[in-house]
Design brief:
binds fe (ii) ion; globular; 2% strand; mainly alpha; two-stranded antiparallel sheet; 2 strands; 344 residues
């Protein structure tokens, strides 16, 4: 694998016997020796675990990425959550309820993974509601009709699967293991969305028009979910070298397009890109360039719903303060009772 450049990279020929055994505490070892063990673990496609030495920049990159991912899961509950009370049947309500609840669970696995790196969950939440940490740009778009629930499942959870399946093999153990369970649930999310759309497409003209309208509005923001193009993604190369990321933004975007085109044909909707066509030579679909200025605007806080999403999250956090206080008081009482029992 490509060696990570930097001042801590050991000189070639560092004696092998100086490399600490994987997983042993290594505070006393020089950083150059620890770096060599770290790079060796990455090169052998093995996992870095919380107890292992890791470069500060690797830890910081992971905390940032996992926190953004966790925030996206939690904020991502809002656009669809708005439709729980308005779902057209009890069956759809139960499915949507389960799906939104899953997203809360994904957030919890991910905050726990960030905690194994020394991050503090209260601090991460504060950073989200202060606007100091980001979440996926896709959740700053409004859900106008119930067809949006289906299209989010199909596109947004589909894009999440493209992103997250390779993350099951990411180099940091707790993050990769969290992704295994998350991906199973994302697969259910995508299918429920597609099944909902199939049902609507077999319905009335008005329902078909509603699906097409939702497809038109969500297609481009979904392509933007994979992040900026590779030549404008400064941290990608280092994340690839550390095997945090396994594929570039553009590779994942292409995979998503290739996966979605036949599904759109089967569904009977038109993806809103006149230049979308199969390229025999490349063995992939060609497609137009997304509006990267729009992505920059939405990421920097100027999307249709940024203020609303963060305000809702802040209000939920403040309204939930008494639950956190009660949980802490309950835990303290329980600990005291256990201690009394131990003494008696
Ligand atoms: Fe999720
Ligand atoms: Fe999901």
């Amino acid at each position: 694998m490509q060696q990570t450049p930097g001042p801590e990279t050991p000189a070639q020929g560092t004696p092998a016997q100086e490399t600490p055994v994987q997983g042993t505490p290594s505070e006393e070892a020089p950083d150059s020796v620890n770096m060599s063990a770290f790079e060796d673990t990455i090169a052998r496609d093995q996992r870095i675990e919380p107890r292992d030495w890791m470069p500060d920049a690797y830890r910081a990159t992971l905390v940032r990425q996992i926190a953004q991912h966790a925030h996206s899961e939690i904020i991502g509950m809002q656009p669809e959550g708005e439709w729980i009370t308005r779902a057209p049947s009890l069956r759809r309500k139960a499915i949507l309820f389960a799906k939104v609840q899953d997203e809360a669970g994904h957030g919890l696995y991910l905050y726990s993974a960030a905690e194994t790196l020394g991050a503090d969950r209260t601090d991460l939440t504060q950073r989200l509601i202060d606007g100091r940490q980001k979440y996926s740009s896709i959740f700053n778009y409004p859900t106008r009709t119930f067809a949006d629930v289906g299209v989010i499942g199909w596109f947004v959870d589909g894009a999440a699967i493209c992103n997250q399946v390779p993350l099951c093999r990411t180099s940091y153990g707790p993050y990769g293991r969290a992704m295994v369970r998350v991906c199973k649930e994302e697969s259910f999310h995508q299918r429920q969305g597609y099944e909902l759309l199939l049902t609507m497409m077999r319905g009335t003209d008005a329902q078909r028009a509603m699906v097409q309208d939702a497809v038109d509005r969500w297609w481009w923001p979904s392509l933007m979910m994979f992040g900026p193009p590779d030549d404008d993604s400064p941290n990608s190369a280092r994340s690839m070298a550390w095997k945090i990321k396994r594929h570039t933004n553009d590779e994942l975007r292409q995979r998503f397009v290739d996966m979605t085109v036949p599904q759109a044909e089967k569904l009977g909707v038109i993806l809103p890109d006149p230049d979308l066509k199969w390229n025999e030579e490349r063995g992939h679909h060609d497609f137009s360039t997304p509006d990267w200025d729009e992505l920059k605007r939405v990421v920097s806080g100027d999307g249709p719903c940024n203020a609303e999403r963060v305000a809702r999250r802040r209000a939920a956090h403040e309204e939930g303060a008494w639950v956190r206080r009660a949980a802490v008081a309950h835990a303290a009482k329980r600990t005291a009772r256990l201690r009394e029992g131990a003494v008696a």
